[in-house]
Amino acid sequence: MPYNRRPLNPLTPFVNQVVVESNAVNENFEILARAFLNEDPTTGVLKSDVYTFRRVDLSNATSDYMLQVGEEAIIRFTDTTSVPLRIATQSGTYYEMDIVVSNNVGTSGGTPTTIFLNPNNTTYSNAFSYVEIFKTNVGPGHNFFTYSAFRMGWAIGDVRVYIINFTTHKSVKGIDMQTGTSDAPVVHLYASQWNDLTTLWTSLGTITFPQETSGYILVRRLA
Known about the structure:
- The chain is mostly beta strands.
- It folds into two domains: 1-47, no CATH class; 54-221, no CATH class.
- Helix content is 8%, strand content 47%.
- It has one helix spanning 17-34, and strands spanning 54-57, 65-66, 71-84, 87-88, 93-101, 114-118, 128-135, 140-147, 150-154, 156-166, 169-179, 186-194, 206-221.
- The strands form two sheets. Strands 1, 3, 5, 6, 7, 8, 9, 10, 11, 12 and 13 form an eleven-stranded mixed β-sheet that branches.
- It is elongated.
């Protein structure tokens, strides 16, 4: 039954009026209750105001999954240098990503090289501009580089990054904490853009590490 703003007609009597109009009033209360959190109007919180949360485990996914707004993916990995996210994406979407590693701080170094996000699970030669400011145990600094993918971090480290995917504006901005090297901890505050206005970004991509790494990745779709 559709919502009826004025279900009662006291001046227009008809057969079974009490039953018919009482049912209409009850249906109106049901419809109104469904609009609130936990279907309880006393909460005062409309469902449209609630950010729906649901986690999906894509650790063993074999095809890309399209996150809905409010959904979060978790991707667990062990002793690997390449983690496909298996997340479909499209122009107009916005994400928050955390890369959380379990490698021991200060003991898991090796040659410092780069953690990347390869959009569409591939690289694009020198198509990404990257700028950062950083702080080490000996002082601050800044850098500008050109890469063939989105730089996420350096050596071993944890990452928080925000990802924008418009065909005409594909970029990331974030912060990472570098560990496992002699100058650790190091913090980088950075931004990177994909200098391409036509290529469609359809698969969020693959995270690559410079050495075998374990941990998990969380990806939340915000819009």
